[in-house]
Amino acid sequence: MNLAEPLSSLSTLPPVVPPRSRGGLADEVGRKLADDIALGVFLPGERLDETTLAARFQVSRTPVREALKQLAITGLVAYRPNRGSVVAELSPLQIDQMFEAMGEIEATCARHAVVRMTEAERDRLSELHALSRTAIQHGNADAYDNINRDFHLVIIHGCHNPVLIDMALGLRHKISTFRRTQFRNLERMTASFEEHSVIVEAMLARDVVTCYREMRAHLLSARSAAARVSSTWSSK
Amino acid sequence: MNLAEPLSSLSTLPPVVPPRSRGGLADEVGRKLADDIALGVFLPGERLDETTLAARFQVSRTPVREALKQLAITGLVAYRPNRGSVVAELSPLQIDQMFEAMGEIEATCARHAVVRMTEAERDRLSELHALSRTAIQHGNADAYDNINRDFHLVIIHGCHNPVLIDMALGLRHKISTFRRTQFRNLERMTASFEEHSVIVEAMLARDVVTCYREMRAHLLSARSAAARVSSTWSSK
DNA sequence: GATGATTTGTACGTATGTATA
DNA sequence: ATATACATACGTACAAATCAT
Description:
The structure is a homodimer.
Chain A: H1 8-11, H2 25-39, E1 47-48, H3 50-57, H4 61-74, E2 77-80, E3 84-87, H5 92-116, H6 119-137, H7 141-158, H8 162-178, H9 186-204, H10 208-221
Antiparallel strand pairs in A: 1-3, 2-3
Helix pairs in contact in A: 2-4, 3-4, 5-7, 5-8, 5-10, 6-7, 6-9, 9-10
Chain A binds a DNA duplex through helix 4.
């Protein structure tokens, strides 16, 4: 069985808030470039030369330029006027802040999802949770990682608010680009599973408060403790 | 006295998460175009012809194109490949969803702001609240609108998380573009002031729970009731 | 359904601005 | 500090696609 099957029910959902551009070379280049960055072809801080990229993708510099500016707004690349672009470098503090924001947004999604999810979505959530148990039993970290992703996606979409969904997905994508392989060890995987269990239980019991609190805690537990430069936040 | 003085303490804060491009004609055109849209020069649904815009701003099509693509990601304009751009048209449902998201995000900011705001920021908040009382006494809706904006900005920045701040500001800007003149009547203004009072009190008392709940309620009270198409969210 | 008009998409040349020696 | 090298920024020309007739 394919534990990492795509969420057909989700991928066919109506287009999210900004009907993101689909056609055009610029967008294609943008997607390819984003993939390359995600795959580590271009490392954080690396210079993104328009001419070089144009040659790489066999297009002129114009679509490359547009793609770079788009990715700059996304935050994937840092764009300095008159000085070109580099792959964004996220400091530990910035990553921590993204985790914090992600925790808040996704917990909010979860809270709304408790009330708004369809029966089909609830079933899908339970199903995914069951699958993740199997993945753990087989010690399959890759499968667990995929199921975990889908698990969170179902909850995010469950809030049925395109604005929140977009924010959550955008953050999730950006974070996943810079931090990969969360579940290296069995302990983290098991802990994650236990936390999911509480969330699913609260979700099915329509327990809004618990669901919100536990989802927030769940995501904050994945938060990099290393980046807690608390001095930055202290009131002087 | 100038009730709408700029927030000098805020405008000099460190650059927010994506160090948004500062130089270049494209960005200038983007800002001007956004202003024009906000000012109603271009109405929702109106076609944004690249050539026409280029003529309007006395530049070539290239920077106009880049500006349009940037605004498309922001959501201010809808961009259809090979078919040009139009000023975004937000349905009542979409506006309602943005209000809901805004309420959640800004309430989250408020919750963090309770703990993280500096003394200077707390003082500024109290000061603004006092000013808003004066504005009401003079029946000055314009002044109240400006102070109200700054009031919320102080709280948003008070969370000290650039990611949350960017999301809140982005949403706020987009919403304000499509919905203006909130405080037409004195009742709404007074109600807003009373709600602010509770929030300030909770903020100064370090009451996290109350602050979060009241800020959320405050923003949801401004939410357009007309767009509540609850049938869209029903679990079939 | 085909054709012409209009508009977007891409390529490329030149100028301006930034970094380096 | 000045000059040189180089990448970006903008403009213009052409190609492709869309829409109206």
